[in-house]
Amino acid sequence: MDKSGSAVATGLRGVVAASSSIGDVNGEKGELIYQGVNIHDLATKSTFEEVVFLLWNGRLPKRAELDELKKNLAAAYELQWQAIELIKGMCSRAPKGTDPMDMLRTVISALALFDEEKRDLSRDASIRVATRLTARFPAIVAAIDRARNDLEIIQPKPELGIATNFLYMLKGEMPDEFDAHVLDVALILQADHELNASTFTARVVAGTLADMYSCVTAALGALSGPLHGGANTAIMKILLEIGDVDRVEDYVKNALSKKKKIMGFGHAVYKTEDPRATHLRRFSKEMGERKGNTKWYDITAKLEEIMKREKNLLPNVDAYSASTYYMMEIPLDLYTPIFAVSRISGWTAHILEQYADNKLIRPRAEYVGPRNVPYVPIDER
Ligand code: COA
What is this structure's pTM? Predict the structure, then answer.
């Protein structure tokens, strides 16, 4: 029951809306597992491709199975001409500053037109569609950035993994090994997070037995909001506005006095350290040390100290991913699309699970409006 006496769980907090074996978040312990495997093990020992297999199949792959998945992903990497035309057209016609999340969502929606298998919701066909989507997300995001900067679109190299390929296609040159490793782990860390807003959205759409592109297009819309995936770009803007570690204290006090939120802090489920932040904090620090400038890490660390003291709020996955990406010279507005490059694996896993044991998701609303309102003819109102 909330403050007003309503039985509605505002924002569905604490409501268990699905059974799932894909991932679990223990907010009290700060624990995250994918199919039973602890995120700390995955972040230190696995690769994004292995995690994709794990999420889709419920267990870690044998070597031959992983090779097969990588082969299938590589075979689907290349962007079709329809996607390239669309991206170039959008970049030349859309207003300057158009959010790449809007373009990514539009391209995914459009690609549905060209996937003849999309209405076959059997597991085998759905895995093939999921493979195509997961393989193409990085190429689409990189192509959007290249096209909007009037640069040539670079096709992926089949021998590279998703993280390395993405940086290669984005920058037009082979990335630094450490940068590629950091991105690979960042993709692992953001791959799934139980019934977060975008995954729940994907499941609601899958529950109608709509095709996977519809589910993913809707999920992309949900992810774009600043309270969800958009928070990583928002916090980087805050870091840039602060600009110096000595200004953090004043900035936070001023923001909190105006009831403004500091993005990248707080979480709907975690009441203790978000285990994803543990790794991204480490990477932000190391990236700063390697690049010879720890300023962005230092400002985030100071924010962490003050937010804990003032509001007892802790950093979430976005707090340190922002400065890490910034130091990798990734444009700010690509942080959320990169989140999508990762989360496509979790979305598709949940869509597969929903298709396999489907029930239309149709909750009720507590009606709080008036009743018996007479219909007054328009001229008498
Ligand atoms: N900065 C400042 N205050 C914050 C805050 C933040 N990042 N997050 C929560 N709060 C405050 C709220 O203002 C509210 O204060 P009040 O009770 O005085 O009104 C209180 O904490 C509860 O906030 P609420 O948004 O209702 O909590 P929640 O559990 O629903 O929020 C989030 C979870 C993630 C939506 C919220 O912490 C947030 O907006 N964080 C910033 C966005 C972000 O980083 N999102 C990515 C999540 S992975």
Answer: 0.95
One domain for residues 54 and 180: yes
Q: Mean of the per-residue pLDDT values for the chain?
A: 96
- Nearest CA residue ID for atom 28, ligand 1: 268
Full domain range(s) for residue 285:
231-327
Supply the residues annotated as catalytic.
267, 318
Task: Evaluate whether residue 18 is within a structural domain.
Answer: no
Amino acid at 22: I
**Nearest CA to 229 among 100, 341, 337?**
337
E strand or H helix at 32? strand 31-34
DSSP-based three-state secondary structure for 55: helix
State whether 217 and 258 are in the same domain: no
The whole-number pLDDT of residue 2 equals 56
Q: Indicate whether residue 112 lines ligand 1 (CB < 6 A).
A: no
How far apart CA 101 and CA 85 sit, in angstroms, is: 17
Regarding whether 238 and 196 lie in a shared domain, the answer is no
pLDDT at 161: 98
Q: How far apart are CA 206 and CA 74, in angstroms?
A: 26
Report the pLDDT averaged over residues 319-345: 97
Pocket test for ligand 1, best of 265, 310, 318, 339 (most atoms within 8 A of CB): 265
The domain tally of the chain equals 2
pLDDT of amino acid 226: 87
Residue nearest to atom 32 of ligand 1 (CA): 267
pLDDT of residue 8: 85
